[in-house]
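task queued by scheduler; priority normal; single chain, no ligands, no partner chains; default sampling; output format set to structure tokens
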Amino acid sequence: MLTRYISHSRQYRLREDNTLFTNYLRLFFFPVVLSFCTLSYADVFEDGLNAFGGAKYEEAYDIWRPLAENGDAAAQYYIGIMYANGQGVKRDIILAYAWYSIAAEEQDMAEENRDDIEKKLSVTQLKRAKKLAREFIRKYAVRSE
């Protein structure tokens, strides 16, 4: 009976130690991992800026496109610039308008650039651009929950 009590007591301590370990993971390990993810994300965007600044537009586009699709307004703005100027992609002012429209929620320059493009579009082009912008906003805009 004593061995059974010792065994039971040992299991309880192990379970208790396991709970403490889990709490330590929650308090210390996960925030550290998350901070590295945040730093990594910023580094990825910075890599895109370096590529863009070095006229490696295709590389910058490849870096920024996934960020833009995940709601990064700065990446969306730069993708808009690339489409507006034909840097690394075929020039397409309708796509530029759509990307600027998403970024305009957080980027003042994106709103200004979008409005400048709007003045240059025909009625038919503007209709297509606004429709595409609505689709992009539905797919790529960050939604606060």
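post-processing summary
- Residues 29-39 have pLDDT under 50 and may be disordered.
- Helices lie at 2-53, 57-69, 73-85, 93-103, 108-120, 123-140.
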